[in-house]
Amino acid sequence: MASYIVAYDLHKQGQNYECLIQKLKQYGTHWHVQQSVWFVISDQTSVQIRASLSSCLDTNDKLVVARLSGEAAWQGYTDAVSQWLKKYL
Known about the structure:
It holds the Pfam family CRISPR_Cas2. The protein has a four-stranded antiparallel β-sheet, with helices on both faces. β2 (30-34) and β3 (37-42) form a beta hairpin. The protein is globular. Helices cover 30% and strands 28% of the residues. It is built from three helices and four strands, in the order βαββαβα. The relative contact order is 0.28.
């Protein structure tokens, strides 16, 4: 299993985020760390995760899926977020 960061911008006014959020939650181990940024744990590749999420996007939306290396730094999050990041990154 690997850790991934998923970030997106949905540009259509009134965009329904529910499709994307439901797909991200299906990864089981996930953290909705910021408004449009998630961490997910998966045995899929970045390309496979992107393909899965793409069905929720319009042609003008943006999506980035990147595998994390295990090194990270953060500030301003709760202890629960910090513990999750230490465990899964």
